[in-house]
Amino acid sequence: MSDGENEEQQQLDDAEDDAADTASPLVDGRPSDDGAAAEDPKFAALLEKLHAEHNFDFREYKPGSLLRRIRRRMTQVHVERFESYMSYLDKHADEHIALLNAILINVTRFFRDPEAWDVLRDHVLPSMIDAAATSRSLRCWSAGCSSGEEAYTLAMLLTEYLRGRQDEYDIKIYATDIDDDALTTARSGLYRLEAVKDVPAALIDRYFTPDGQAYRVRRDIRKWCIFGHHDLTHDAPLSHVDLLVCRNVLIYFDNTLQDRVVPRFQYAIRPEGYLFLGRSESMLSRARRFVPVGFKWRIFQRVTGNEPDVVATSAPDRQARLLGPRPDPLQIASRLGGILENIGSGIVVIDPAETIVVWNPAAEHLFEVPADGALGRKFRDLDVSYRIDGLRARIEEVRTTQTHAQMQNVVFARRGGDTMHVGVRIAPLFDERRRPIGIMICANDMGTVSQLRDELDRLAEQSATANEELQSTNEELETTNEELQSTNEELETTNEELQSTNEELETTIEELQSTNAELTTLNVELERRTADLHRLEAFERSVLNAIGPALFVIDPSLVVTNWNAAAARLWGISAEGAVGREFSSLPSERLVRVAREPLQRVIATHGTERLTGVPRAQVDGGVTLDLIPVLSAAGELLGVLGAVREGAGEILGN
User: N or C end: fewer C-beta atoms under 10 angstroms in the chain?
Assistant: First the structure.
């Protein structure tokens, strides 16, 4: 039976296994619970030994599941105490590899949780491809990739989405794990029929080639996937990643280790990149740089520094009451007037009603519209709003998302007919309390980049002075945010308790899947040995039937275990009617009457009995019957052999 076909049964079996572990676990051979075992100094010494001698650091893994797996391995090698197992590790050079395989449950498959991959395909990949329109580069990272199924699943989805255009992009999928055996399997790209059962038939035809009784991932898909050894808890993370897939790995870490790994993910993922976790991993409720895209399937997007504070936005009514009325955007423009007069970039500021409130001299020169003809008018009424292709759409995008947008190397037609190349940056404007007050459009002549750098340096100095004035207000806002955060953390505590329970259930399911695979192998071996036993039994019956004299075997409890064909003919009782029955219940009263007491004496004394005149079935006259004890090499009675003598000779001695 397969993992997928018996998933519900696996969950039931694993729940029973957890119940048994909880009811009577052992710590150094004595009953205890997982909490006490985790604090056992000998258990801690074992973890330190694994870290110091074999570079396996499990000290910050969740103790409950870690204890179960280590105990299971100790049971397999018939060791009960932790100190004895440490000695066992010293004596057996390969035992640490077997222990690592027991701890790391490599349960994964293609398109695991299909609905989650549908969300990734429909909502994440389009955004990733759009963001890579300029760089033509896509970098993905499958952390904890096991045997590579999820990395190849991602490669197939990208190929499907980019159908015919994949050669236009530089695609790299980095897949890492600490299990070198699993990485070897992943690099080969060779999977059994059972492993690809969840892959749609159309994708198997396009991306796999048959290889004996297995399927191999096509070379043009494998070339994107780079597999390597990497420890999430210690090694430096990758960087500039568009999508990081790390499913059902963090659930094995305790909260301290999770809190240390999540910032590494934040570093690895580019701004507005994506993180794809397992369905039971919800620790990102504590992270302020990720927002959910598909929360049910734990798909998150990393936000930029300009995103609203998660805690602050969780109670907008209370925040508005604390912060008071918003300042007039015209007052802000007046304060920055001196700066805007001297900057070489064309600066246009529009308020929330799309009215132009700032139009500096550089904008007059660049757009060929005087300030008097622009200030106070709607931006959409000026011809510059449509002379720069796509400008109005980008402004609306910034207004909706409150994030920055850029237009690089835009060809801009001037009124005289000549063209110039400009770069346009569109940014939302906020007051000192992070409330939107307008949109700024900054246009630069790309031919004068060096001059702009000097102007921006001067602008930075002037902005620093303004920032100092705003610092005190920001500190007041931080105090308010801390108060809100305290309230929010009380709610998070309850939620984290539920998350911890859910993570334990997910761990239990994966342990069951591993155990079920072992049971499948044992079942196959048992079936083979049963078939061998049946063949031996048939051979034994054939040998007994081939012997001329009548033979039968009685076990120590007087139950018939063998009855050959000659015996059936002699006493008129078939083998089916005799085997398995007690001797005294055989349908031959004369035979039973003559032989029952001698049989009991042979069983009691282990001596040989010879009976003469034993009656036959429906035939006058009798035969001579020898009753011989069958003994083991140690002298233990295994049964009694009844053999009929023929003629003057003997079949089995005196």
Answer: C
- Identify any residues that bridge with 631 across adjacent strands, giving them in sequence order: 637
Q: How far apart are CA 643 and CA 544, in angstroms?
A: 11
Q: Are 108 and 150 in contact (CB under 8 A)?
A: yes
Q: At residue 263, what is the residue type? A: P
Q: How far apart are CA 650 and CA 149, in angstroms?
A: 71
- First-residue to last-residue Cα distance in the chain: 55
DSSP H or E segment with residue 372: none
Residue 156 has pLDDT above 50, yes or no: yes
152 near 110, Cβ under 8 Å?
yes
Residue pair 484/311 in contact by the 8 Å Cβ criterion: yes
Could you report the per-residue pLDDT of 548-572, keeping only the tens digit for each? 789 999 999 999 999 998 888 888 8
Report the C-alpha gap between 84 and 228 in whole angstroms.
Answer: 34
Q: Both tokens of residue 211?
A: 């290889």
- The single residue listed with the structure tokens 């150094």 is 28
Whole-number Cα distances in Å, 611 to 277, 548, 625: 82, 19, 5
Q: Which of 241, 234, 242, 192 is nearest to 214 (CA)?
A: 192
The CA distance from 523 to 529, in Å, is 10
Q: Per-residue pLDDT tens for 236-272? A: 888 899 999 998 887 777 777 788 888 888 889 999 9
- Condensed to tens digits (0 to 9), the pLDDT of residues 445-473 reads 876 554 565 577 788 888 887 888 888 78
> Is residue 141 within 8 Å of 268, Cβ to Cβ?
yes
Residue 618 backbone phi and psi in degrees, to 5: 60, 20
Q: Are 14 and 511 a contacting pair, CB within 8 Å? A: yes
**SS3 for 315?**
coil
pTM: 0.44
Report d(CA 272, CA 306) in Å as an integer. Answer: 11
Alpha helix stretches (DSSP H) within 559-643 = 565-571, 575-578, 589-605
Secondary structure letter of residue 236 according to DSSP:
P
* Contact present, 414 and 404 (Cβ < 8 Å): no
Name the strands in the sheet holding 346-350, side by side, starting at the edge strand that comes first in the sequence: 356-359, 346-350, 436-445, 419-430, 405-413
- Quote the tokens at residue 94: 């390969």
Contact 591, 574 (CB under 8 A): no
Name the token pair of 393.
């759409």
Using DSSP's 3-state secondary structure scheme, residue 136 falls into: coil
pLDDT of residue 601: 93
Radius of gyration of the chain (CA): 41
Residue 104: which residues within 8 A CB-CB, separation 6 or more?
A: 178, 179, 182
